Amino acid sequence: MEYAGFWVRVAATILDGFILGIPITIFVSSLFGWEWYTGGATSGRADFVNFLLSVSVTVAFWVHWGGKTPGKKIMGIKIVTYRDRQEFGYGKALLRCLLGYTVSALLLGLGFVLVAFHKEKRGLHDLIAGTCVVCDR
Asked: Is 131 exposed, middle or buried (0-12, 13-18, 19+ CB in 10 A)?
């Protein structure tokens, strides 16, 4: 299997921002008003709902779409377990999304940039969760 590189993963993330992020933002705005987006009085609750929905939708796609989100599907890549290249469940998906992404982001994004330099194109979030991203064409 061929590992998916840094730029194809960035493109998939950008696509997911449009395909998943915009509808979630519109939904949260319909609940809390657009003021939350600019730091209004309800921003704390709205931010939490936005985060919860984003994580839930992403994890659900990973688990039920064979390691793909819409952006990954368009780009022809998928997430699989590292050792046996299999699909995974909610536990591994939540570990990757919550702990892996958080640690990668807290390190000023270096956990994500690691993909560009790791021999198997794995980011810190992949290493933490025991996953890798491969081409699916």
From this structure: buried
pLDDT digits (tens, 9 = 90+) for 27-47: 999 998 888 777 776 778 899
**Cα–Cα distance for residue pair 49/39, rounded to 1 Å:** 14
Domain ranges of the chain: 6-135
**How far apart, in Å, do the first and last CA atoms of the chain sit?**
10
Render pLDDT for 19-28 as a digit per residue (tens, 0 to 9).
999 999 999 9
Residues 6+ apart with CB under 8 A from 22: none
Rounded to an integer, the average pLDDT of 37-62 is 89
What does the block give as tokens for 69?
A: 């989100």
Q: How far apart are CA 4 and CA 75, in angstroms?
A: 10
Question: Across the strands, what pairs with 78?
Answer: 134
